[in-house]
């Protein structure tokens, strides 16, 4: 399988919302290439007819009774907010100006 | 009475219940120890002196009122800083949560409090539990009490080091790929990864949800069992929590025996990369098991060879998804919100400033493995390996009661040695990872010191899912036999700080 380029790492960083510096990109590109080279061994089994396992327990649709319970108060829920206003989380601008 | 900090949790609980010492006295002795030595060890990120003493006073009052106390009431504990604690900082070893005060308790935290266990504080860890040395903590490394220039393992290095330096008789860890067992091995302590789903993950900051499992850390097998019993059991707040009775681990720990058991030695866990002294102590452990009446056979688990590679695709994939919640909007760090930047820019600047290098590497690796075009080759194949690993365990457990192996390929390595070599660091978890992939239970306990460096070696015992009691039955027998041979617990050989 092909290795990973510096440009690809820059693209991954954007997808992952990491504002990496140029030095970090250089550093991580080499390391990620090494790691991917090592873990690519799993593709040895790609052609085998084996069902995938996503989870150790065979659980489906675990339900609980739909009952009203005490949750966090607004003050508790907002206690870690970087900014708040009118009992709401205050966030930077999400949409463009116009 | 003997030095309070040297007693086991079971001994302390008995003394407290008998009234020969108060929980406040026990707690003060441990807080004094923290004050005296933690500047050197750096096991704790936060010491909750007032909270601990208040919990201790409450236990003493309940006892004075004639209430019957639980088996660990009044005993101090060090809690890994990954469990939320209402009103007490929880950082996960990350700058992104520096200063965050959770508004609620994790289920593990709540159960500890209900059992009267005294929480001394929060222990250091690799950031978001990603690492094998505790060097990835944003708040500096922890020293191994056996040699402060070496790592205490990771990610739960703070919890293990607190035990080995007698700052706490009990601790809690979490194990995603070995983060309880590997630190236990390299610090000469006992650590157990319970069956996946055995201990609630509610309020435990998520790294890789299908692998993460909280569990007990202690200096003796019995202490670990007593703590296991306190924290385990079904929790409706965790949909992956097993709704079945907890195996009787305390009874097993009190009645250690291997007579009549068939024990498997995993053939794949030796060879290149294994330290000679580690293999020597492991082989002695196998000989001991035979002397104690076990039938030991070799078993082969060929797919374990691919487990490390599969783990470093699955865990990063799940982490890249789990850590998306750190977006600088609702809690934690926010950087660059100057009124001109968009929410997306603020998120990217915050994550850049708040995450350390290993977290960034794994988030990007997971993003890569889950991208279209690579998904089938990487994540899809890793999931197939996971099935093959589970089948290898199934086949093995059809023949033997438990499996044994070294816990780690080497003893504790020097701080800095592998810090910027991810693949070298990852290999520390070679023997522990298959257990997480399959979801079964495993323990590490001391089996001696490696002749070449005098550092602790861990013996790993692996049991099928929901047979956690077997770990304690075998572990207690091995512990008793080794102590009879050594004349004392190995932890007594740890150098004075």
Automatic annotation (TrEMBL), chain A:
InterPro entries: Asp/Glu-ADT_sf_sub_c, GatC. Its EC number is 6.3.5.-. It is an enzyme of class 6 (ligase). Residues 76-98 are annotated as: Disordered. Gene3D superfamilies: Glu-tRNAGln amidotransferase C subunit, N-terminal domain (1.10.20.60). It catalyses: L-aspartyl-tRNA(Asn) + L-glutamine + ATP + H2O = L-asparaginyl-tRNA(Asn) + L-glutamate + ADP + phosphate + 2 H(+); L-glutamyl-tRNA(Gln) + L-glutamine + ATP + H2O = L-glutaminyl-tRNA(Gln) + L-glutamate + ADP + phosphate + H(+). SUPFAM superfamilies: Glu-tRNAGln amidotransferase C subunit (SSF141000). GO terms for molecular function: asparaginyl-tRNA synthase (glutamine-hydrolyzing) activity; ATP binding; glutaminyl-tRNA synthase (glutamine-hydrolyzing) activity; transferase activity. Coiled coil: none annotated. GO terms for biological process: glutaminyl-tRNAGln biosynthesis via transamidation; regulation of translational fidelity; translation. Keywords: ATP-binding, Ligase, Nucleotide-binding, Protein biosynthesis, Transferase. The keyword tRNA processing does not apply. Heterotrimer of A, B and C subunits. PANTHER family: GLUTAMYL-TRNA(GLN) AMIDOTRANSFERASE SUBUNIT C, MITOCHONDRIAL (PTHR15004:SF0). Allows the formation of correctly charged Asn-tRNA(Asn) or Gln-tRNA(Gln) through the transamidation of misacylated Asp-tRNA(Asn) or Glu-tRNA(Gln) in organisms which lack either or both of asparaginyl-tRNA or glutaminyl-tRNA synthetases. The reaction takes place in the presence of glutamine and ATP through an activated phospho-Asp-tRNA(Asn) or phospho-Glu-tRNA(Gln). This is Aspartyl/glutamyl-tRNA(Asn/Gln) amidotransferase subunit C. It comes from Streptomyces triticirhizae. The gene is gatC.
TrEMBL record, chain B:
PROSITE patterns: AMIDASES (PS00571). GO terms for cellular component: glutamyl-tRNA(Gln) amidotransferase complex. It is an enzyme of class 6 (ligase). Keywords: ATP-binding, Ligase, Nucleotide-binding, Protein biosynthesis, Transferase. One of its GO terms (molecular function) is glutaminyl-tRNA synthase (glutamine-hydrolyzing) activity. It catalyses: L-glutamyl-tRNA(Gln) + L-glutamine + ATP + H2O = L-glutaminyl-tRNA(Gln) + L-glutamate + ADP + phosphate + H(+). Its EC number is 6.3.5.7. GO terms for biological process: translation. Transmembrane segments: none annotated. Residues 25-471 form the Amidase domain. InterPro entries: Amidase (IPR000120), Amidase_CS (IPR020556), Amidase_dom (IPR023631), AS_sf (IPR036928), GatA (IPR004412). The active site is at residues 80, 155, 179. HAMAP family: GatA. Allows the formation of correctly charged Gln-tRNA(Gln) through the transamidation of misacylated Glu-tRNA(Gln) in organisms which lack glutaminyl-tRNA synthetase. The reaction takes place in the presence of glutamine and ATP through an activated gamma-phospho-Glu-tRNA(Gln). Heterotrimer of A, B and C subunits. Belongs to the amidase family. GatA subfamily. This is Glutamyl-tRNA(Gln) amidotransferase subunit A. It comes from Streptomyces triticirhizae. The lineage of its organism: Bacteria, Bacillati, Actinomycetota, Actinomycetes, Kitasatosporales.
């Amino acid at each position: 399988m092909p290795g990973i380029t510096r440009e690809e790492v820059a693209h991954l960083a954007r997808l992952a919302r990491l504002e990496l510096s140029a030095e970090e990109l250089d550093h991580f590109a080499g390391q990620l290439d090494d790691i991917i080279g090592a873990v690519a061994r799993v593709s040895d089994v790609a052609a085998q007819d084996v069902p995938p396992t996503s989870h150790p327990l065979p659980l489906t649709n675990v339900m609980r009774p739909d009952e009203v319970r005490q949750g966090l108060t607004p003050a508790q829920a907002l206690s870690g907010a970087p900014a708040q206003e009118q009992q709401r989380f205050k966030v930077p601008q999400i949409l463009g100006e116009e | 009475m003997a030095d309070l900090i040297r007693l086991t949790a079971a001994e302390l609980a008995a003394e407290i219940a008998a009234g020969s010492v108060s929980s406040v006295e026990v707690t003060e002795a441990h807080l004094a120890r923290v004050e005296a030595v933690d500047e050197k060890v750096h096991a704790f990120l936060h010491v909750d002196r007032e909270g601990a003493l208040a919990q201790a006073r409450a236990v003493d009052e309940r006892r004075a009122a004639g209430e019957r106390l639980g088996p660990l009431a009044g005993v101090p504990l060090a809690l890994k800083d990954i469990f939320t604690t209402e009103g007490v900082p929880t950082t996960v070893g990350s700058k992104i949560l520096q200063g965050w005060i959770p508004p609620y308790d994790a289920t593990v935290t709540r159960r500890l409090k209900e059992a009267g266990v005294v929480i001394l504080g929060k222990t250091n860890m690799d950031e978001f539990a990603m690492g094998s040395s505790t060097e990835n903590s944003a708040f500096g490394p922890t020293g191994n009490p056996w040699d402060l220039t070496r790592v205490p393992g990771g990610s739960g290095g703070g919890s293990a080091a607190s035990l080995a330096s007698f700052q706490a008789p009990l601790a809690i860890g979490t194990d995603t790929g070995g983060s309880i067992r590997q630190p236990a091995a390299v610090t000469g302590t006992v650590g157990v990864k319970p069956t996946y789903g055995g201990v609630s993950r509610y309020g435990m900051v998520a790294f890789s949800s299908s692998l993460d499992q909280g569990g007990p850390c202690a200096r003796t097998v019995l202490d670990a069992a007593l703590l296991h019993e306190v924290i385990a059991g079904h929790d409706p707040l965790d949909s992956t929590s097993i709704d079945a009775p907890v195996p009787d681990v305390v009874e097993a720990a009190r009645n250690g025996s291997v007579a009549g058991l068939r024990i498997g030695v995993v053939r794949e866990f030796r060879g290149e990369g294994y330290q000679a002294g580690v293999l020597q102590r492991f082989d002695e452990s196998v000989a001991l098991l035979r002397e104690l009446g076990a039938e030991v056979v070799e078993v082969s688990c060929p797919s374990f060879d691919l487990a490390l590679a599969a783990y470093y695709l699955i865990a990063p994939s799940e982490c890249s998804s789990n850590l998306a919640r750190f977006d600088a909007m609702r809690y934690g760090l926010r950087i660059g919100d100057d009124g001109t930047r968009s929410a997306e820019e603020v998120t990217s600047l915050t994550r850049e400033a708040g995450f350390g290098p290993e977290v960034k590497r794994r988030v990007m690796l997971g993003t890569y493995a889950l991208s279209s075009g690579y998904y089938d080759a990487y994540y899809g194949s890793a999931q197939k390996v996971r099935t093959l690993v589970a089948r290898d365990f199934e086949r093995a457990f059809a023949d033997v009661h438990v499996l044994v192996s070294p816990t780690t390929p080497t003893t504790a390595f020097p701080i800095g040695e592998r810090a910027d070599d991810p693949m070298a660091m990852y290999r520390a978890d070679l023997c522990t990872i298959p257990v997480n992939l399959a979801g079964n239970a495993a323990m590490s306990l001391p089996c001696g010191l490696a002749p070449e460096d005098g550092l602790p070696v861990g013996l790993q015992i692996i049991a099928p899912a929901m047979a956690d009691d077997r770990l304690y039955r075998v572990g207690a027998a091995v512990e008793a036999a080794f102590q009879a041979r050594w004349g004392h617990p190995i932890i007594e050989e740890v150098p004075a700080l």
